[in-house]
Amino acid sequence: MRPDDSAELTGDAGGTRIQRERREAILEAALEVFSRDGFRGATLDRIALVAGMSKPNVLYYFKSKEAIFLTLVDRIMELWLAPLRAMDAGGDPVAEIRAYIRRKVEMSRDFPRESRLFANEILQGAPRILPFLQGELKALVDEKAAIVGAWMRQGRLKTLDPHHFIFAIWATTQHYADFDVQVRAVLGPERSGERRFEEAARFLEGLFLG
Fold first, then answer.
1. Is residue 198 predicted with pLDDT exceeding 50?
2. Which one of 26, 89, 98, 128 is CB 3.0 to 4.6 Å from 147, fit for a cystine?
3. What's the CATH code, domain 72-209?
4. How many CA atoms are closer than 13 Å to the CA of 164, on its beta-carbon side?
5. Which residues contact 201 (CB under 8 A, 6 or more apart)?
6. Three-point CA angle 107, 206, 195, nearest 5°
């Protein structure tokens, strides 16, 4: 069923305003479903229900469940990698690492569903994004690990394996998104509010830079 959006034509490459809004509604619903059920557990019927649309309407905008998923992953990876790309070889190492840690904690606070969607894909063996992991992601991490390694050789950071240093930052910061229920349960009601992210950031800064 083709939506009649002719009255809302804007002339840009993204289609009409209504078409863009419906695409965004589908992606928002899919993010909710994929982050909870994973790719295998998610269905187009469920995504359509959450989006408040019919399944044929969803398929007008996206040809398959995988097309929706890959659109979301593309967005997530741009978001996720921006703080690492921002790491500046000419900056102060402590300030650069501190900024990276803090931004990663903020992302766990602000984008928990995106983190869980990505984690679910990795746990399934990354069948849909493995080329990206082996290509663009590896190249970026290698580049930034070389910067971190140079800082370490200069004595400006403690000498460690720079790749595992980055992995450890990922693991500890994303823990606050992927295991949020556990974190809140263990901290208890007195410490499980929004301030837990600030506490986490300060602790991790001390852990990696102390």
1. yes
2. 89
3. 1.10.357.10
4. 4
5. 101, 102, 105, 106
6. 45
Give the residue, 210 or 24, on which the prediction is more confident. Answer: 24
Instruction: Give span(s): CATH 1.10.10.60, the chain.
Output: 6-63
Domain with CATH 1.10.357.10 in the chain: 72-209
Angstrom distance (rounded) from CA 124 to CA 127:
7
- DSSP letter at 134 equals I
Tokens matching residue 179? 């295991």
Alpha-carbon distances, residue 119 vs 37, 40, 144, 187 (angstroms) = 12, 13, 22, 23
| Residue 30: C-alpha distances to residues 19, 35, 100, 204 (Å) | 16, 8, 28, 32
At 9, the pLDDT band (50, 70, 90 cuts) reads very low
Q: What span, in angstroms and rounded, lies between the C-alpha atoms of 121 and 191?
A: 31
Residue 52 CB contacts under 8 Å (≥ 6 apart), including other chains: 25, 29
Phi-psi region of 193 (alpha: psi -120 to 50; beta: other; left: phi over 0): beta
Dihedral sign of CA atoms 179, 182, 188, 189 in order: positive
pTM (2 decimals)?
Answer: 0.86
> pLDDT digits over 143-167, tens only?
999 999 999 999 999 999 999 999 9
- Residue 8: predicted pLDDT: 34
**6-63: what fold?**
Arc Repressor Mutant, subunit A (1.10.10)
